[in-house]
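Service request form, structural biology core

Requester: graduate student, group of Dr. S.
Request type: structure prediction, single chain
Budget code: on file
Notes: please return the result as structure tokens.

Sequence provided:
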Amino acid sequence: MAARFVPVDRDTEYLFPPSVQEWLPDGHLARFVVDVVNQLDLSRLESAYAGRGSMPYHPSMLLGLLIYGYATGVYSSRAIERATYDSVAFRYVAANTHPDHDTINTFRKLFCGEIESAFRQVLRIAAGMKLVKFGVVSLDGTRIKANASKHSALSYGHAQKLEAQIQAEIAELKRRAAAAEGLPDDLSLPEELQRREDRLAAIRKAKADIEARAAERDAPAQAEYEAKVQAREAQRQQGQKPRGKQPQPPQGGPRDSDQINLTDPESRILPAGSDFVQGYNAQAAVDAASMLILAYDCVQAANDKQQITPMLEPLRALPQQIGEDKDTPIALAADTGYFSEANVEACEAAKITPLIAQKRESHSGWLDRRLAPTPAMPDTPTALEKRRHRLATPEGKAAYGLRKCTVEPTFGIIKQVMRFRQFLVRGLKNVQAEWGLVCLAFNLKRMALLNG
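Core staff response, request fulfilled:
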């Protein structure tokens, strides 16, 4: 007996008009993204359209395409354009239209200035869905590769050698032209001179940028030296003899090893495990209860110590912005890379409880530390003593222990599930906007899961 199969018919026309609402099952991520984006206030984006030429695509649809693309690992505008033909979910988000890649890319640039507003609005929606539960917030950073190769860097020492070499070539070409010496027939003297002049200008600009960075790097050391000199001079004016050695001025200026990337000059060489990457330091503050990102930033610095203060203001203002009590207690958990006395005091001043580890503890002796009694709090404790006592309590240990199972898995999902491991754009401002879009897409993906 012949087997019976489901008929394969690609020629019969639809008897009834199809509906995009029938293309996806209930609870699909694309449906959730469209529902949330339709609740956002995009009036500033809508007013940015001048109304000339053909009718534009609606900003909510284009934003939905971008968010769903980033949430599912489709980032480039050309790939999103193809997906509006190939993917049922993308066709649903685009309402069966097909904006071209240039339109998508132009909108992405236009949306850069509105990402923070959309990010806050989505958190307000999450709070309305009872998904955000303020308590412990985990802060950490991860290195993300720039849209540039670390092999496209130019060091200051090599730039000086190239500058001297090109200057010598220009002088030689001019000497031959003045002496009417023979030049190859296929060599155009004006073109050769112009090409070298352009390259020389680029090298000098790179040197100037490296020198500016060196001056910025050396400024704290120079300020410290000047303060010591002034202090010793004040002692002399008071009739006291300064003690200790005379302070020596710092050896500033660019080093031969200082370098700049010619593809993305604002990116930096950053340590990443046992290797180095040409990239940026992406920061995220994650709610320990829901794993939603509450605040984000992207910086050039490899050191995390300077990243606490920029996060305090948005975290402190967030409860009131999303309709919660402005005095909602928040505890900030961070690893040893963020520890400093100034950071602890800044958290206390912002009324955010600091749970910042001072040093890395070994795994040996864990049971002894667990069973050790909680030390007594001093009568008039400093901010550091409060932090030390808080982390020694069972509640403090439990709260700090949430850090490694919230923010680190968040980065893992972004890099492995969403497959975002490299920025598409260049320049710090553009990179910060794209990281905000990644965090926005992550939050919607997480909200859809929590809501299901």
